[in-house]
Amino acid sequence: MQASQGDTVQRFSVAQRVQHLLLMLAVTVLALTGLALWFHDTAFGRTLIRLEGGVGTRGEIHRWAAGLLIAVGLWHVLYTVFTRYGHAELMRMLPGRRDGTSVVRSFRALAGARPRHGEHGKYRTAQKVQYWAIALAALSMTVTGLGLWFETATMAISSAGTISLLRVIHGFEGTLLVIFLLLWHLYEVHLRPGVFPGDGSFLHGRMSLERLRREHAREHRRLAGGVGTARDAGSENAEAGS
Amino acid sequence: MRVLGYAALVLALAGAGSAMAQQASRIQKCEVCHGKPDFKKVLANGQVVSLHVDMEEFRASVHGERRCEECHADITEIPHQKHGIQKVRCVRCHFQGNPVGAPGSDIVESYRQSVHGREMAAGNPKAPSCQGCHGAHDIRKRDEAESRTTRLEIPKTCGRCHIEIYAEYRTSVHGVGAADGDMRVPVCTTCHGEHDIQRHEDAASRVSPLQVSVTCSTCHSAEPLMERYGISSEQVATYSESFHGIANRFGMETVANCSSCHGIHDIRSHADPLSAVHPENLPATCGRCHPGANANFARGRIHVNPKSKDAGIIFYVAQFFKWLTIITLTGLALHILLDLTRIFLNRRGTRAAGDGHE
Fold first, then answer.
1. Which residue of A147, A217, B312, B323 has the lowest C-beta tally within 10 Å?
2. CB–CB contact A183 B329 (8 Å)
């Protein structure tokens, strides 16, 4: 993590931002070409298929985007394993003790209790959940998608019925993922009052110190004076980088 | 008066009698030669053509009351010339609004655009004209058993030219049914059409790659009909929801249609060891498009409806995801609603408490 510049801090490295942009591109294209097939019976699906150049071209675009997703996924895995900063970021994403209480607090706040800001590190619980959900979904969509892509091999090593099963999983899970990304990720990141009309940190990688203090108090304390207490450096959020 | 009355009666009888005599004599005149069973001619290539007309058969036909020259209009004297006799043109009478009351429709126009009509126009001597299928002196209404175009006679009629396909069809599940007198099984025209038959490569054909599944579905999606044979009518819907079916519907010709797997004129029950979709034969059948197909291709059902319990695990997985999607959608929508409410209430609260500390 780099030190603060003026009243903002660097939150995401260039590599992280490029990975996120490529992931965004791949997932958007995969969703548009995938939903076209899943909803082929509706005007929505038919329009998408027409715009995507017919059912054959739609499939080709889908597989190119799948290749991009797999490539970004591999880059990300290598980045978290082989770079100091990437590894530190992964460790910051691991769930910790505070996340349990944070979840309870969020639910109580939603139910009307007086909100108390938790003492979050660099990533809030909701952000950790989103990261892991997207990572697992990408992995599962990749596995089922490859099974459908190489259908002859899949059937040859299992059975003809496997294709129907993979198709049901791939289609439903993809739809679920789109719902998740639109109603949670996009809402959380861009659409909530206070953030709306959008948070540019996924592009410029910076966050204001003021917001960091409010939303990521422990991270703010750590950066402000290097007064990382024993609590902050606890095992749940071990800092390997910076 | 009485004398005059008799005279009139005699004259009337004579008139009617002479008209009958005239008609009978004309037929008899033609019959003198064409009524002989061994009346024939030898063509330049040595082919022997019978010129005999079975008058009994003719009189029983729909045209039995007609005179020979009404159709053979170019014969104006008897004996007639030996060469240059024209083929009978049925459209002389069979057109819409004809004065003689012959059934007329625009069917002849669709025939002209059909593969048979176009071949005929191009001068193919093998192409059938009306007579090729309907017969000549023996034409019957098609609901008569003796008709060449009655449903169960159709395969034989088409088979006169398409002999190999006829042989294949006769052993198929459809052909066996037709031979047993089952009026519900498809004969040639059920799938190919009648006067408007096109080549299967032609997009307009009922049996073209993009059309054939629609054609099969006219019977195979009819539940009461399929129940009689113990066949599921779901196969049509499951195909059209499969990768093959969707791609086919959106215009991909290379993808499998019904006949790619089940066969064309040789369709058999999947339980028949000779069927292309018999489990033993599935690896070879699938392998035509999916090189590397093995015995596992015969494991698990091909026509699967995830919405039906028969689909087994696929049904339960689909149900799981369906409810997970509904719950997630509701949960996330509720989350947004509660979050917005909370933010709204907090803002009001902060404002009411005086200047905020934030």
1. B323
2. yes
Q: Tell me the C-alpha distance between B116 and B128, whole Å.
A: 6
CA distance linking residue A112 with residue A25, whole number of Å: 37
Confidence at residue A242, expressed as pLDDT on a 0 to 100 scale: 33
The structure tokens listed for B66 are 């007609």
Model confidence pLDDT, tens digit, residues A138-175: 999 999 999 999 999 999 999 999 999 999 999 999 99
One-letter-per-residue 3-state SS of chain A: CCCCECCEEECCCHHHHHHHHHHHHHHHHHHHHHHHHHCCCCHHHHHHHHHCCHHHHHHHHHHHHHHHHHHHHHHHHHHHHHCHHHHHHHHHHCCCHHHHHHHHHHHHHHCCCCCCCCCCCCCCHHHHHHHHHHHHHHHHHHHHHHHHHCHHHHHHHCCHHHHHHHHHHHHHHHHHHHHHHHHHHHHHHHHCCCCCCCCCHHHHCEEEHHHHHHHCHHHHHHHHHCCCCCCCCCHHHCCCCC
On chain B, the residues whose CB falls within 8 A of the CB of A192 are 339, 343
| pLDDT tens digits along B299-313 | 888 899 999 998 899
Question: Other C-beta atoms within 10 Å of A165: how many?
Answer: 22
Residue that has been written with the tokens 């088979």 in this structure: B159
Joined together, the tokens standing for residue B306 give 């995830």
Alpha-carbon gap: B85 to the closest alpha carbon of chain A (Å)? 56
Inter-chain touch A179–B328, beta carbons under 8 Å: yes
Rounded to whole angstroms, how far apart are CA atoms A151 and A24? 27
CB atoms A54 and B250 under 8 Å: yes
Contact B266, B172 (CB under 8 A): yes
User: B187 and B199 in contact (C-beta within 8 Å)?
Assistant: no
**Mutation test of the interface with chain A: which of B335, B346, B350, B357, choosing the one with the most A Cβ atoms within 10 A?**
B335
Q: Do B332 and A184 touch (CB under 8 A)?
A: yes
State whether residue B122 is helix, strand or coil.
Answer: coil
Mode of pairing for the β-strands spanning B40-42 and A206-208: unpaired
Q: How far is B288 from chain A (nearest CA, A)?
A: 12
Closest approach of chain B CAs to the CA of A53, in angstroms? 11
In this prediction the ipTM stands at 0.86
Q: How many CB atoms lie within 10 A of CB B172?
A: 22
Q: How far apart are CA B247 and CA A36, in angstroms?
A: 12
